[in-house]
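Bumping with the actual sequence this time:
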Amino acid sequence: MKFDFKLSSDKQRLPPMGLIVLQVDETIETEFRQAFNDSQDQLFVTRIPSGLEVTAKQLSNMEGNIKAAANLLPQSREYSVVGYGCTSASAIIGSEKISDLIKSGCSVKNVTNPLLAATEYGKHLGVTKLALLSPYIEEVNTPLRKAFENSGLSIEIFGTFGEEKEEKVARISEISTTKAAISLGQNISVEAVFISCTNLRTFGCLDEISKQIDKPVFSSNQSLAWHMKKLSLESA
């Protein structure tokens, strides 16, 4: 038996958001569920091939797959914003290049990434002097620090866990992150702390770190979610 049906209209719904997640990322989707817990916006997720280790070469190699990853998002509607979920690759590939590749793979008004989002959130807070905590090895840390400096955010003090294996980064305890971030954030020249990497768990410790040092503390996933919400509202 075949039934007739009617189609519901998309006119009353905000345009959806899209998120490109690294194949090895075990954290961002969980933290985004928390960030968008009170939101009715649609968020579609696609994955991009990525290496088991966080090295400059592996990060750079992702450039060739960004368009294809964006193209795997549902193509029935235009997106208000698509976020590319990798801070360190954004520093190496560049925000403008990433935006061009994503726009060539899907219909979207705005593109952001954790690096761009963090710089925008820093401006929102009115801070220019950061403590930066990362899980990366030095060949990845160097372009990341440079990218922040080029965006007008001075890295006053820097710390790293020095880990290149993604599966270990995803399992760094929030206790370890809290201790490291507090140590960096206590520096008197620092106005705020940024914790880098979408695969590093931070949502359970951001408030505690901020409370302990009495300064703003933000992370890759927190910044990216904030910026995507902002861009989505602005494009509505």
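The tokens above came from a reply further down the thread. The first strand starts at residue 17 and ends at 22.
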